[in-house]
Design brief:
By secondary structure, the chain is an alpha/beta fold. The chain contains six helices and six strands; from the N terminus they run E-H-E-H-H-E-E-H-E-H-E-H. Helices cover 35% and strands 14% of the residues. Strand 1, helix 1 and strand 2 form a beta-alpha-beta unit. Helix 1 crosses helix 2.
């Protein structure tokens, strides 16, 4: 579960562009893809608004067509796993930020992208590998909360920190359990 932490002094546009691309790249099927994003509470609403605008600009379809920006999952069973994680999260109170009617699905390997807010670590989508085009975004009040949440995972391949303060990033990086 590759996490990212966007601090209050981050370059917000760069963070949103890069992290949403990292979450949705190759329909989320990337070993180092962003799976969960923690955003300082002062930037949270703006971050989510910008992230939703980016994803709403995607076109789900045949990757051989020039205007397609999001292709299918590698197999229907992988798409079904992500559908299940997303549905469970929504049933438990997560808020889907992307309107399903904007990305009609066939129930097969083509899977709409989704951004979830109001998520918690009680939800599989925030605890297990999704490996699909879904990302949970949570607000955090400070570095300590972000570090605790980033470390609350059995997986720890990568992590990213978004700040203008290199010393702060280095201090936080020393506390994150990741490769």
């Amino acid at each position: 579960k590759d996490p990212a932490y966007v601090m209050e002094d981050a370059n917000l546009d760069a963070a949103v562009d890069t992290l949403i691309d990292g979450a949705m790249f190759n329909s989320g099927q990337c070993c180092c893809g962003i799976e969960r994003i923690y955003v300082h509470e002062s930037l949270f609403d703006t971050f989510v608004e910008k992230a939703v605008a980016i994803v709403n600009g995607y076109k789900l379809g045949n990757p051989l067509e020039a205007d397609t920006t999001l292709g299918p999952m590698a197999h229907v069973r992988f798409a079904d796993t992500v559908r299940s994680q997303t549905a469970e999260a929504i049933a438990a109170g997560a808020k889907a930020q992307i309107e399903p009617s904007d990305f009609p699905e066939d129930g097969g390997a083509y899977l709409m992208p989704q951004i979830l807010t109001n998520v918690s670590h009680d939800m599989r989508v925030m605890r297990e590998e999704s490996f699909g085009p879904v990302v949970g975004i949570m607000p955090v009040k400070d570095d300590a909360e972000a570090i605790a949440l980033m470390n609350d995972s059995d997986f720890g391949l990568t992590a990213s920190l978004w700040t203008q303060d290199a010393m702060r990033a280095e201090n936080i990086a020393d506390q994150i359990e990741t490769g």
